[in-house]
Hints:
By secondary structure, this protein is of the alpha/beta class. Helices cover about 40% and strands about 15% of the residues. It contains 15 helices and 8 strands. α7 links the parallel β5 (about 185-195) and β6 (about 220-225). α5 crosses α15. Bound molecules: 2-acetamido-2-deoxy-beta-D-glucopyranose. 2-acetamido-2-deoxy-beta-D-glucopyranose binds near residues 166 and 167.
Amino acid sequence: MESLYVLLILLAAFIASFIVAIAGAIQTQYFNFSIPPGVNQPGMLRLLFAFMRSTSALGKILEKIGVCSQITFTRYLHNGKKLRPDPQLSQQDERFDGVPVRVYRPRAPASGLRPGAIFLHGGGWLYCSIDSHEKICRCIAKGGELVVVSVGYRLAPEHKYPAAYEDCLNASIHFMKNAEHYGVDPANVIVCGDSAGGNLAAAVSQTLAGRSDLPRLRAQILIYPGLQALDFNLPSYQQNQGVPPLLREHAAFFALQYLNGDASNVQEILEGSHIPPDMRLKYRKWVNPDNIPEKFKVRGYKPHKPGEFKPEVYETVKRFCEPSLCPLLAEDARIQQLPESFIFTCEYDVLRDDGLLYKKRLEDNGVRVTWYHLEDGFHGILSLYDNYGFSFPSGKKGLDRIVEFIKGL
Ligand SMILES: *[C@@H]1O[C@H](CO)[C@@H](O)[C@H](O)[C@H]1NC(C)=O
């Protein structure tokens, strides 16, 4: 009975998505999104976004009629269906210091201790889970021949910052301390995350870099991470403001949900009215369009003058200046301690410049960076390389590069 219900919902969503796709093709402007011609599989991306839009509309209806909240519905859809066991991996659900994790271990015999990876999933701090990112974790565990720990941190808006960060940190510390129990060399552990997970990975890396009682992380892998909430008018935010699935307003919405569990100030944040002028000046050396290479500014970028400062908004968002929320704002002394890094950016992604600015900060501080820029990539492409028949070969290419980097460590 329940599955019939779900089937009907999916069918309705599918039909609605076709209608939106057709309407979108006729009048893209009306829907406030744009698909750049240079993106990988533009038609597929349009369809995917139409599907997302219609399921979101459906979620709203379900909430109105009291079936479930929109967030619950969206989370349900994001989690996908359960995968069959992978014969090459053993996997086990556990708790690390109270935090749910799934440990993936290659079955093939190892000659000694293996490397390990802590994986922090994306989803705007609101969505997704260990299940939704199972394919990526398996791919990394098999391709990199290492033990992967995927962390089921608590989600916003129910759990606000720093809940997710603390869960990730506590699970990571537990893993480092007990690595050998999992056949892992504690001196050979990396941390890796996509999107909001990239934010958490960067924050955890910074904190662990300051701990002398634990071995150093071997590397960090940041996949289109969100790293700041000071400036939503950097070139990539302007250029890709309407590129799905992460529109510019979504980026601000998610950051606010994570921080406050409430996104009512999203317009002020987008305009830049939330940061006092002296703070803006203080961080200008790091958060600045001048630090973005010129070649990334040729595609429709206009310097933006921040809106008039609103102290009452600042009062609610001042924790945006904490590095464990916005890692781009960490002091040089901390950045210098960071491990070798892999930064993955996509051209058609509002968060591209967060990645580029962090890359510059790491390089300026003598940290070795491997940078991979997916010229036809969009935000989230990696977890979409094969998803419900929506497939983006470029995402697979990106994932292969990450596995290559891991093997080369
Ligand atoms: C994380 O670990 C610390 C130290 O053990 C503990 O004080 C803190 O409550 C933990 N945080 C969470 C969110 O469980």
